[in-house]
Amino acid sequence: MQQKNISAAKNDVALLDEESYKNIIVNVYKVYCGLKLHFNSPYILKNNFNNSGFDEYTMNNRDDIGIFIKVVDYFDRDFDKIKFALISMLLKNKDSWIGDILHQDHKIYNEKRIIKIDNLHYDCQKQIEKLKDYISILDINLNDFLKIENDDRSQFIKKIKPTDEFSAILDYYVSHLKQETNNPLWKNKLFSLEKYKYLLIEDLNEETKNLFLDLVK
Question: Are residues 108 and 125 in the same domain?
Fold first, then answer.
């Protein structure tokens, strides 16, 4: 990917005719930094990304400011779409850099997540039915079904093969993502899903929430 010269990139921002365009670029920078912190630290930022350390001044001192401009242009200045894609990118790999959002593998992953979110209620409903069936067949309670076995994955993961969204939302109602494991890959996955939970739950509709409340009652 060809990166703009930093001086030229800064001039691009300084000379923008539309103030709203500049604001979108700054807001994309803020949400990118906020999400990076959210997915890589103990802090839970949810949708509050107005950290005083994330501002236009610090953005203008970055060498990759031109990439933020390119990202905003690629998504036709649609902030919500950019934020959604950033969440997808960092869920897939919490160490991703802003420019990775334009790579083909991240685009494909984001498109798949769009479909999952569009079908969230239906998918949760089907997975809850499957979960209830397994619990009944195995004659086991939900908490035991969610427990990590042999320092690896739980029966829940092995049998249900849940989507990331379902695993994350379920943790809001029944804690299961903070279990200890010595498997580094699975440990990272659990950490990312636990962070993802906070970005999903606030926009969850009442009908879908009721599915989970009925499961755990």
Answer: no
